[in-house]
Amino acid sequence: FDEEALLKIGRMISEQQQLALASATKPAQCPHRPCWHISPPQGLLNDPNGFIFHNGEYHLFYQWYPHACVHKDKYWAHLTSPDLVNWQWQPVALTPSDWFDAHGVFSGHALSHQNQLMLFYTGNTRIGEQRDRHTTQCLATSQDGIHFTKHGPIIDQLPEGVTPHIRDPKIVRHNDSWLMLLGAQTSDLKGRLAIYRSEDLHTWQFDGLYGQEFGDFGYMWECPDLFSIGDETFAVIGPQGIESFSEHNTIPHHNGIARARFKSDKGIELSDFEHLDYGFDFYAPQTMLTPDGRRVMCGWMGLPDEIDQPSVENGWLHQLTLMRELSVKDGRLVQWPIAELDALSQPEQAIMLSDQGYSLESKSFDLSIELEWGSQLNLFEGEGSQLMLIADQSRRALVMDRSQTLNRAQDTIRELPLTGDKIRLRILADSSSVEVFVNDGDAVMTSRVFTEPHATGISLTGTPSLARVKRLNPSRA
Ligand code: FRU
Q: 166, 186, 201, 271: which has the highest count of C-beta atoms within 10 A?
């Protein structure tokens, strides 16, 4: 077929769709809608994409299916921000409208290069009666940071020994070359990292498959990221089809971080896989570098198979996590809410929490507390609902139990193994989510928590403890 002609038709469709989408308004009435997290105006949100600082502004895109709360042909929604807290909705950046991405403008990263904003993404199409998956890696660029021109595939063949499950490009600079990292599935159904190399960002040579050190570790690795903090280099991968260490966690999709070392000849060696999150809802994170040198991460607060949530009745599904600064402490990666979030805080209150309970009259707060082993913190308490955080001495774990909430998923417990005498928590809540930072960010438990609108009580069973609480104001989203 005539690719040029199809490209042209594709662009026309994409402009019409953009006009229609620009007039979409928020189904704002939903009581579960977050006040300061990024959520879709309607439809389904999944992975954050293209997270970058470019020409004086932060840019963040996300995977979006605007027409319903299902995983179908994805768009790239686009937001910009001066401060990583207040976000401005921009015209949709990329629509699934061309012959190379008609069934999904899939995930990828951005590069701010020679005054251009470059988006690298996976073009997903389904061909023929069998709907065979056809995958290319594509490029789109923008001069003004708002309007994007698609350049089509820059890699249009599969490397040998890899299935069409190869996607989610991340571009890094190494030894005067550009590297493109991709999540890949080998023909014998193992997840691996694929790497391509380029001198000019337009022509790419296949370099190899990496991660063999991990052996049989899932059937596919999605959404890679790679970055350094100080002398340490880390690779993020999303292995699909691995078992959890916990009998309670039956979900096969995990996100983890591994140590990465560039080998002297070529390629990367991975070691020490660790979970990035111990809660229910965390996947496909991306990181970016701020102008003052901080590494900031944002993830999807959702999972690929989880589409039955109460917000669907109001026409929207899923949200992103808060922005987390990453640092290295005693050789380990630590996550912490970015300092910019303090701009949303109301004055701090000190509350002695006990089993008497306390009504915060808000589901949007930042709470710090230290728990003794054997105690239980209940959040979002209301008629018959609560989220339980149990410092379970016998399991030596912090247990998050969402069995008494409106969440519909069948498995209701997550656990974080812990040693040490005390458990210090900083919890950021926003309507229908919690992000629990444990022991100064050593570990995080991220979860959606649906409860009745007035479930704003907090209580603590076991030894009473002084909590410091700040209600959080809404951000501009
Ligand atoms: C991860 C993922 C990516 C893919 C995108 C499609 O959630 O499956 O691998 O690019 O979502 O929306």
A: 166
* Residue 36 near residue 273, CB atoms below 8 Å: no
Pocket-testing residue among 44, 45, 46, ligand 1, by greatest number of atoms within 8 A of Cβ: 46
Q: Is 37 in the pocket of ligand 1 (CB under 6 A)?
A: no
Q: Which of 69, 167, 255 to mutate to test the pocket of ligand 1 (most atoms within 8 A of CB)?
A: 167
CA–CA distances in Å: residue 41 to residues 35, 73, 280, 475: 13, 17, 23, 15
Nearest ligand 1 atom to the CA of 74 is 12
**CA-CA distance, 463 to 128, in Å (whole number)?**
64
HSE, CB side, 13 Å, CA atoms: give it for residue 182: 32
Question: pTM score, two decimals?
Answer: 0.93
| Two tokens, residue 213 | 């050190």
Query: Cα 288 to the chain's mean position, in Å?
Result: 12
ipTM: 0.99
Exposure letters 122-153 (e unless 16+ CB within 10 A, then b)? bbbbeeeeeeeebbbbbbbebeebeebebebb
Q: Is 454 left (phi over 0), alpha (psi -120 to 50) or beta?
A: alpha
User: What is the whole-number distance in angstroms between the Cα of residue 228 and the centre of ligand 1?
Assistant: 24
User: Does the beta carbon of 97 sit less than 6 angstroms from any atom of ligand 1?
Assistant: no
Name residue 228's amino acid.
Answer: S
Decide whether any atom of ligand 1 lies within 6 Å of the 303 Cβ: no
Concerning whether 308 is annotated as a catalytic residue, the answer is no
Q: Which of 47, 73, 277, 401 is catalytic?
A: 47
Buried (b) or exposed (e) across 192-204, using 16+ Cβ within 10 A?
bbbbbbbeebeeb
pLDDT of residue 477: 66
| pLDDT at residue 112 is higher than 80 | yes
